[in-house]
Amino acid sequence: AAACAEGPSEDSKAKGKVSRSSRAGLLFPVSRIDRLLRRGRFAKHFGAAAPTYLAAVLQCVAQHTVEVAGKISKESKRQRISPRHLQLAAQSSLELKQLLRGAPRCWGSAVPHSQLVASPWNQKKRKSEKR
Q1: CATH of the domain spanning 20-100
Q2: CA-angle at 82, arms to 79 and 112, nearest 5°
Q3: What is the mean pLDDT of the segment spanning 85-104?
Q4: Which pTM value belongs to this model?
């Protein structure tokens, strides 16, 4: 059990079983990005460091987005980050707004959250619940 907590053993390091992501100190998968770059045929050739650099950039953008969305969710007194928080983060941060300027939007524009107004329908429902 103690060997599992320490990470890969020295034998696996000697065999070259360390991933490119862990060598670069990243969480995003460098090998998967490399494979997708090759399959996508974006260019005839690209350097060996290109997928590592792209993985680092994607991880940085994701980290910044989640960080801003986390602050927004704390302001709205929520425990979890929802898609709405991510959308508000992309709209509130100037860097993210410029980066995502040409990206298609999956949902409508964010409308600030409004409180429920006492409408006749809500009042009728409340009266019937009290009975």
Answers
A1: 1.10.20.10
A2: 100
A3: 88
A4: 0.67
